[in-house]
Write a structure and sequence with these properties.
It contains 4 helices and no strands. With 148 residues, the chain is mainly alpha-helical. The longest helix is centred in the first third of the chain and has 37 residues.
Length: 148
């Protein structure tokens, strides 16, 4: 009977040793970098916020992008207007060229409006739109105004 008891104690000690090593391993993982792995999602969001939201360069660049996109739409509208005025006195050959140019410029204007609206809708850029610029541009409304 003594041998059975001794074997049971050995089994208890072996199981306790394995559990103890597992606990030490888990503690070691957290101490040596496991905690970083577990919190990586939270820290990644914080790092992104710190590097973009807090970055003065990002803010300035974003303001300039919105303004440049809006001005590109206005410039295209101005070119279309100038071509329409020229069309009234142009020769038949030049009229065909002007019509092609106007069609291409209208497509370019729509692309610029869509680019502006796309960037304005991006969550990380929207807070940095200049307060004077419209939230969205309308592809069908002319002339475009870059101030509210």
């Amino acid at each position: 009977m003594g041998q059975v008891r001794e074997g049971a104690w050995l089994a208890v000690w072996a199981v306790s040793g394995v559990i103890g090593l597992a606990v030490l391993y888990v503690i070691g993982v957290f101490v040596l970098g496991g905690a970083q792995w577990v919190t990586a999602g939270f820290r990644g969001e914080a790092d992104e916020r710190e590097t973009t939201v807090s970055s003065g360069e990002f803010r300035r660049t974003t303001y300039e992008e919105f303004f440049d996109l809006c001005v590109a739409v206005q410039n295209t509208e101005g070119t279309i207007q100038a071509l329409q005025e020229e069309r009234e006195v142009a020769s038949e050959t030049r009229t065909a060229q002007i019509d092609q140019s106007i069609t291409a410029l209208k497509a370019t204007r729509i692309e610029s409006v869509n680019a502006y609206n796309s960037e304005a809708a991006q969550e990380h850029r929207a807070p940095f739109r200049d307060k004077g610029l419209p939230y969205r541009l309308d592809a069908t409304a002319e002339p475009t105004t870059c101030t509210n």
